[in-house]
Amino acid sequence: MKTVGILALQGDFDAHRKAIERASGNAETRAIEVRTAAELAQCDALIIPGGESTTMWKLLEIEGLLDPLREFAARKPVYGSCAGAILLAREVTHPEQASLGLIDISIERNAYGRQIDSRIAKVATAEGEMEAVFIRAPIIRRAGPDTKVLACYAGDPVWVEQGRHMVTTFHPELTADTQVHRRLLEKL
Questions:
Q1: One of 82, 108, 165, 181 is an active-site residue; which one?
Q2: What are phi and psi of 109, to 5 degrees?
Q3: Is a pLDDT exceeding 90 seen at residue 43?
Q4: Among the options 16, 43, 165, 173, which is catalytic?
């Protein structure tokens, strides 16, 4: 059995758990909440959900999870949505903040606007059109040469992968579409 961990320090980690259950469709994969290094060690992949990226970073520091997370990411897939994408980016602006630097992207925090500017949009993917929920979403301003853009919105990348790691600037866990979570499961 494969185990997908969902960082459960902040954000809608339960929605990601349900999305993994829908995407796996069988008992071969389970999703668990991760709050400690011991729980992280049980996982074959990790999801870092949306939330508030500076708060998440502080909680990772407080819980002593930064080094275990870096060691985990050197061997296993990590997927970040929205704030999780910010934490995986190589460069963060508006304002600058610390990140894990796992994917060669430059990302601008809250670039689509304030909470009132949140939106649901359609984005094109290799599997066809999918619904994307943007909540105070960041924008990927630069994707490095080794990244693969899997979807764009208004001309900007919104779903990117590099090697075993992947980010979305939107919240696929808030829709019925399982494309993003299935792609993560394919990396196991």
A1: 82
A2: -65, 145
A3: yes
A4: 173
Query: 114 falls in which pLDDT band (50, 70, 90)?
Result: low
Q: What is the dihedral of CA 170, 174, 175, 180, to 10 degrees?
A: 50
Whether 82 is a known active-site residue: answer yes
**Distance of alpha carbon 4 from its chain centroid, rounded?**
13
Q: Summarize pLDDT for 19-34 with one digit per residue, the tens.
A: 999 999 876 899 999 9
- Domains in the chain: ranges and CATH: 2-186 (3.40.50.880)
| 171 labelled catalytic | yes
